[in-house]
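Progress against Task 2.4 (sequence-to-structure conversion) is shown through the following example record, which the project officer requested during the mid-term review.
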Amino acid sequence: MMLNKKNLKDLYPEALAAEVDKNLKLYLNDYNHIPGRLKEAIGYCVLNGGKRLRPVLCLATAKSIGCSIEQVMPTACAIEFIHTYSLIHDDLPAIDNDDLRRGKPSCHKKFGEDIAILTGDALFAESFNLILKYQNSSPGKKLEVLSEIISAAGASGMVAGQVIDVSSTGKRTTKKNLEYMHLNKTSKLIIAAIRTSAIICNANSDVLKSLSIYGENIGLVFQIIDDILDITSSTGTSGKTQGKDIDNSKNTFPSLWGMDKSRKIAKEKTEKAIESIKDLDIDKKILTDIAKFILIREA
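Structure tokens generated for the chain above:
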């Protein structure tokens, strides 16, 4: 699989990211009557740019199956709420202690640690409210969607991965533990973004299984490339403090495997992701392109 970074912009569906941004702004209108400082912090964090990878994957999955993006938009935006909450809490001094997020002061630097914690809490809770209020699905489908997201974000998902991350910081971990950490911390919400869309669009169990394998692999690729970019990219390009993983003695793919092997693993997992969906009777191009984009992204 040969990829040229000149084609990078052609691989990512920016139009879907723009649709996510438009709808996020609409949903934020629900919060006109909350305390002003909280409303300001929510808007600052949710609308602070980014590729919108997780909601874009939700929309792209719907398109690939033959559903409209509007059919899954509330769930896509709910997942972005959860992702934003996780970034706010990750940046806190007690966890990653990062002053920058997407090239701007992180939430706690802009609003203080107290408001940052509460903003993350609010976004986590309101993500479920978006689905309950706006997702046009049967009660049974909504319960399935909520179950997927809660499993991905909770004690057996993102939180588990974060606990392993903070517990192993400064200590040498195993390669198996590293993959477990990244599977939970990063891949599971990506898998949920894909699976919830497929569930809403009535995909069968075989499609769900293949899409889950796809999501697990691109999630791990995303994290491997993130680890690499922490070393090779600049603060201006990435929008995050360069070298933070090294400064914090974090366990990363490059620190355990080395740069060359990490790139090889990322390429192999990208190929596995693309292979996992090749026999599905869906429009695979958009998901294949996103997988390629994740491998060669520069920020």
